[in-house]
Amino acid sequence: MKKIWFLALGLGLAVVLAVVGLAACGTTTVHTGYQQEGIWVNGQGKVAVVPDIATLQLGIEAQAVTVAEARAQASQAMDQVMTALTDNGVAEKDIQTQYFNITKITRWDDKNQQEVVIGYRVTNIVTAKIRTIDNAGAIIDAVAEAGGDLTRINSIAFSVDDPTDYYRQAREEAMADAKAKAEQMAELSGVTLGKPTYISESTYFAVPAPIELGGKEVSSVVTPISPGETDITITVQVAYAILK
Length: 244
Fold this sequence. Notes:
CATH topology of the largest domain: Translation Initiation Factor IF3
CATH architecture of the largest domain: 2-Layer Sandwich
CATH class of the largest domain: Alpha Beta
Strand order of the largest sheet: 1-2-3-9-11-4
Shape: elongated
CATH superfamily of the largest domain: Protein of unknown function (DUF541), domain 1
Helix content: 10-25%
Strand content: over 45%
Oligomer: single chain
Structural class: alpha+beta
Number of domains: 2
């Protein structure tokens, strides 16, 4: 989590801008003045979007009697998987190693009352960003075929490459919602609504839950993949001054 604070003082006016960045949500606060009086309301804007990015988590797991044998098997299979990804349109810059591990495999020896090493396991996991979702099923099948029985396809998740316009639309709806509520409250209270003195924004990108794919068997039928829809939501808290 990162926090950035900007403070400007002049003519008795204090403006504090706090920006908090989160993985799937964020908060932006603008506070003018220190008074807590006024009409405080919450507004919400929500936009339904169709994801245009699919992110696969996949890789290789090899097991052998020695580290060298397990590593050689994993390396060869991973090279084939990487070739399958790039041959099917996945850019090298969109492939990133997430996990690499070499682990001892042991069993318990009852006679000698100790663990005995019986082999080694090499695991190599990457994420691959697929920018054409319609190709996701074919890419999954190509990877499964390339890596054979060593293939591990853990999950697929969906997102939006550039949500800027969707955030803008949701923000407009949220501010309009907040203003409508404040105007009604002012009318019901018999007061005149002034300008906002405080604005706080929270954003939330409802990323679809990853789909667990597990091991993949080679088939002549292309694996069906459907991204569905997801929501981008912005909630604002606004304080309006009361004109007397």
